[in-house]
Amino acid sequence: MTVLASTVDLAGPECVANRDAMLGKLAEVDAEHAKAVAGGGEKYVARHHDRGKLLPRERIELLLDPDSPFLELSPLAAWGSDYAVGASLVTGIGVIEGVECLISASDPTVRGGSSNPWTARKTYRAADIAAQNRLPVINLVESGGADLPTQKEIFIPGGRIFRDLTRSSAARVPTVALVFGNSTAGGAYLPGMSDYVVMVKERAKVFLGGPPLVKMATGEESDDESLGGAEMHSRTSGLADYLALDEPDALRIGRSIIRRLNWRKQGPAPVDCYDEPRYDAEDLLGIVPAEPRYDPEELLGIVPEDLRNPFDPRDVLARVVDGSDFDEFKPRYGPSLVTGWATLHGYPVGFLANAQGVLFSEESQKAAQFIQLANQADTPLVFLHNTTGYMVGRDYEQGGIIKHGAMMINAVSNSRVPHLSILMGASYGAGHYGMCGRAYDPRFLFAWPSAKSAVMGPQQLAGVLSIVARQSAAAAGRDYDEAGDAAMREAVENQIEAESMPMFLSGRLYDDGIIDPRDTRTVLGMCLSVIHNGPISGAGGFGVFRM
After folding, report:
1. Are 416 and 539 in contact (CB under 8 A)?
2. How many of the other CB atoms lie within 10 Å of CB of 460?
3. For the chain, N or C: smaller number of CB within 10 Å?
4. What sign for the dihedral angle of Cα 511, 60, 126, 543?
5. Angle at the Cα of 470 from the Cα atoms of 467 and 471, rounded to 5 degrees
6. Alpha helices of 415-499 — where are they, by DSSP H?
């Protein structure tokens, strides 16, 4: 039998403490996410509503199919910076007329929807996701363009926003702009480079330079409507393809455009054990698969608050995969990395999950072989992180840990099947690389509130600096300042601890969002459905593996 049997004591004091700690972390994340939802604050939200306009998330809700999910991306972008949490932009993936689309909505309640450096980075990440997964793009536009005081950080790299739109069109993946208000200066090129453009009557204003700039540049007197109004662009310039009467009408037209795309997924459909494989426009995942035999609610109690304490990832898998059915590969070899096959919402997947934290040579070789097998079978891979990195020490160095770790990283780097990563616990050092961290281009990477990621743990890093400082003092013949050493270690530990927390990393877009562990199955299912918009094909070859 390949059905997992979970023996974790959910009523035990350890699980209860883990659950309480996880709920506390989730409350902290929810409080920060509420700041993004609040936009520019009550004053500017009320002013926006008083003008008869919808907020970005209200527009998205009306655009999506009724009762369908919305997978928001990078909601905590700019956290910890001088800019508003969320970076004045809402991005995510939702279903419109049965088609999964990448949706990007500027938030006009935050400095008029102007783009700061974090807005640009969030936009780049959304564009990468759309390109990698062959997703139609819909921009809900109401933006004052670049935040001028930060133009030096936006202007030059910002050109890729328009490049990405035209490349999407060239790849036969449609782009749509729904313009609700101002779209000025560089923002005018969002509709200008989209395949379809809808403008709201008496609301949309699209121009390279507004009346003040035109007056300064040419001496010409003009007004908003004659320069860039929706009526003008519909009747005179031809920039607008559709003139909407109001915001709901614009959203209705946007849905109609998607309905007429004749969109087809290129990847294989999920396998339903009861029916023939199929797609269903009414159901994002297309099937009703076997649910796990264990309650996802129990995931709250599995990860210890102290990540130095190991946990069994099979207890996670039993609450995520279809029917809790997991066919483990090489279970007796390299046991601190669990590898195996399963289905998730009907999609075949391979899992690599850290068990005891440290990766040894055996685990590295096992991972490299497993990744090659997944590529032979055109099977996507899911990486579940809880690793302190590759093992160090004389015996391990002599045993070839560098070349074996490089073998695993080589396999991850050159694998061509889609990768998904979930940071459950620790993700330190080169183990973060071998488990397909951000630099290795997983299609999606999400973190649990319990996750931490850095070059190494805070205590280890502070200890290394202390040893180096002691050796330097000894070499110079100086007495070592023990009090200063203790203060340095405490300061370094606090800094690394703060910089390894998920909100810090999510604010810098090193993940695509922090998710509730109980939502892991749903989020992975949505991501698997999304990646199947394009073909799923493994690598034709790998680089040289050092043996």
Report:
1. yes
2. 17
3. N
4. positive
5. 85
6. 429-434, 458-476, 482-499
Our CA angle for 305, 310, 316, nearest 5°, is: 85
What is the C-alpha to C-alpha distance for residues 280 and 285, in angstroms, rounded to an integer?
8
Tokens of 419: 């990768």
d(CA 289, CA 278): 12
Residue 24 CB neighbours (<10 A): 11
| pTM given for the model | 0.91
Tokens at 141, concatenated: 């536009």
Query: Looking at 345-470, which runs of residues are DSSP E strands?
Result: 347-354, 358-359, 381-387, 389-390, 419-428, 444-447, 452-454
- At 140, list the tokens: 């809900």
Helices (H), 133-246: 151-170, 189-192, 211-218, 224-228, 230-232
Residue 285, pLDDT score: 47
Question: How large is the C-alpha radius of gyration of the chain?
Answer: 25
Token pair in block for residue 96: 């419109």
Instruction: Name, in order, each residue with C-beta under 8 angstroms of 363's C-beta and a sequence gap of 6 or more.
Output: 334, 336, 337, 408
**Terminal CA-to-CA distance of the chain, rounded, Å?**
35
Q: Which of 24-38, 211-225, 396-410 has the lowest mean pLDDT?
A: 211-225
Beta bridge partners of 420: 382, 444
Q: Provide CB contacts within 8 A for 278, sequence distance 6+.
A: 269, 272, 286, 287
Is residue 381 within 8 A of residue 418, CB to CB? The reply is: yes
The per-residue pLDDT for 214 is 74
CA distances to 9, 180, 190, 311 from 302, rounded to whole Å, are 9, 46, 45, 7
What sign does the dihedral 78-80-83-85 (CA atoms) show?
Answer: positive
Question: Nearest Cα to 435, choosing from 454, 448, 422?
Answer: 422
Q: pLDDT by residue (tens digit) across 277-291?
A: 444 444 444 445 789
Amino acid at 355: A
Tokens describing residue 121? 């980075």
Q: Report the DSSP pairing between strands 99-106 and 89-96.
A: antiparallel
Q: What are residue 184's DSSP bridge partners? A: 207
Place of tokens 């690599």: 352
Which residue has 């973190």 as its token pair? 447
CA distances from 450 to 383, 439, 445, 513, 518 (A): 16, 21, 15, 13, 13
